[in-house]
Structure formats: structure tokens, C-alpha cells
Write the C-alpha cells for this entry.
Amino acid sequence: MLVLAFDTATDVATSAVLDDGRVVGERIGVPRELLEDAHAILSDAEKAPADLDALVVGTGPGSFTSTRIGLAIARGIALALGVPGAGVSTLAALAASERGVYPVIDARRREVFVEGPRAVSPDDLDLEPGTVCVGSGAIRYRSTFERLGAVVPPDDDTIHVPHARLHASLVSGFGPVDAIEPIYVRVPDAEATLA
């Protein structure tokens, strides 16, 4: 089974192609270049979009716009190719990077997205000393987490990236891509402004 997996929920877009669970290529880029990255991976693997059997998309939480970009791309590809898909939490993919890590995504507004999922101030987290925090939120609030006794790997460590290959490893089954729902922890800024 040839699977295209990708996540655009954070400032970093990840994509991977897996053939029967084996990674045949992956890329790290930015959300606006996701389709180019996916095309390049397929070309390098000597595969065409028509060879895909399924999709896996990151569902957030993360940037509202970036998460919607990923879901829109997944729906467009699924419609064009007639393939099923699955959605996987960006937090779950980060947590799958290494046993026992605590995923933290930058939520802007001086908050982070954490398991639950929920948005909280980094200072309000009750972490055990030595907890390894990973993700964009861990990098942004490194000094806070270290003050709380947590450990944050170096900024350039790829453990902070929600790798698409990890998303694919968490899928238990595929279904209609239109049924995949994003994980929004807060209302979009536009709705909050109108309220």
C-alpha cells in the first residue's frame, strides 16, 4: 500500500511517502510548498500520484490556517484520485517521536497546545522534573520549561518536528477523507474578534 502522509499544522510542513509501512522518502519544508515536496518525493521514488492508495493528514492542533491548508489539500487529492485517508493529531505524532516525551506546540497568544488537547500558559503546566518537552512550543518557551525542571533538546534537534512518517505509523484504518475533522482547541481569531 502506497501512502502519502503530511502535516501542515505548525510552521514546519512535513511529508512522507511510505510503501507498505517502509519510508521511501520524506521532506521537511513549509506549508505553502507541501505539494511540491510531495511531488518530489513521489518522483524520487519513481511513483506517480495515481499510484497512491491512501492519505494521512495531520489534524492539529496548530495554526488554524495551516491546519485548514493540510485538510484542504488532503480533500483535493482524495477527490482527484479517489483514495481514502486518515487523520492523526499533530501532538500524537510528536509524542511518537520517542518514548516518554511531552509534546508542546506553540499556540501563539503566550500559550501552548498540549495533550488533552488544550491551550495553556507554559507557566501553568505541572511537569515532573526531567520531563522531556518537544515541539515548537518547547523551543519557544525553553526558558520557562527549563525553569520548571523540564528538559528541552537543542532547537535544531529533529525531535521537535512532527514527522509525517510518524503520523502514518499511528493509523489503524482508512476512511472517507471528508470525514476527517481538524482539532481546534480555540475558536479562530476572526470569530473571536467578531464576538
About this structure: The mean pLDDT is 95. Residues 24 and 45 are 6 Å apart (CA to CA).
